[in-house]
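Subgroup meeting minutes
Present: P.N., E.W., G.H.
Scribe: E.W.

1. P.N. recapped why we're keeping a running log of single-chain structure predictions: easier to compare across weeks, and new members can see raw inputs and outputs side by side.
2. G.H. added today's entry (340 aa).
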Amino acid sequence: MRSSGRTILCWTSSTRLGGYGSCPEISVKSTPKNDSTRLEPYGSCNLEEIYERLVVPTLDPAIDRWLAEDFGDAGDLTTSAFIAPDVEARGEIRSRGHGVICGLPIVRRIASRAAGTLETEQLAVDGDRVEPGMRVMEIRGPLASMLEVERTLLNLLGRASGVATATSRFVEAVAGTEAVIVDTRKTTPGLRAVEKYAVRCGGGRLHRIGLHDAVLIKDNHLAGIGSRFSEAVEAGANGCREQMRPRFIEIEVDDLDQFETVLDLPSGTVDIVLLDNMDLASIRTAVERRNLRRRAMLLEASGGISMESVRAIAETGVDRIAVGAITHSAPQIDFGLDMD
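Output recorded in log:
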């Protein structure tokens, strides 16, 4: 078998929407319509573009760290001892579970960076549904190179696909409502870019990428403001917009009294109000009051959202539902590398 070092790219028109800032639209599948997407990082880019902008800039250093966990200072002792460098092989990555696949371009990059003699061909596209036995990638080249990167690339593929799958289940649960599922910053340290990309593969939307691109005034911030709530929030929001140009300004409220105080702020002070751990009746009341007084203000429900509760929350009329579980509690999807 040839060892040309060639990596075969297989992006197709079935990639889904993603994007930060201004990106050209190309042929993609449709996503739920919701005005909250105007505030979303990578909201107008397709999935290939979000991968290039969000994941690629930090991918190579991340791969080096992932591989260093296995290689240490001595490399793969077992493969070095038992597999000759000139033994060629062909392998197929197959799904061993049901889910939404994510991470195939990252797998290709791991194979290319760690072992440039490996040739890879995608047989699926990120965002595709997979089932047990489905072939998703073919790898050809030195067997020793495949064995050295096997666990790293399968771990990454399984983790990213787990996040995409968990996201897709929440998205499906709210289908037919006006609510969209958004992620949180409750991501695995070192994997935020990958996991946020996976959220988009699963049909979810992105909240802020980090502390640097948007403002979220939470309860602990409010505790430091003191009694001059309205003045402090208005002054801080105005100053922030002028000096830092955040993508959006959001504020957390715990009850309807706090929500009324936010409604009393001048129009445009905040873009989104986070309704934290409110019961259904309170959320409905907040939606009704928002509709009467601040129709452009977006409402986001958050706090302990589960598959059992998400549909009822979506039916209250909120615009966004923030679900930490799609990243912090996503089960891994199992994949295996089978050799000829």
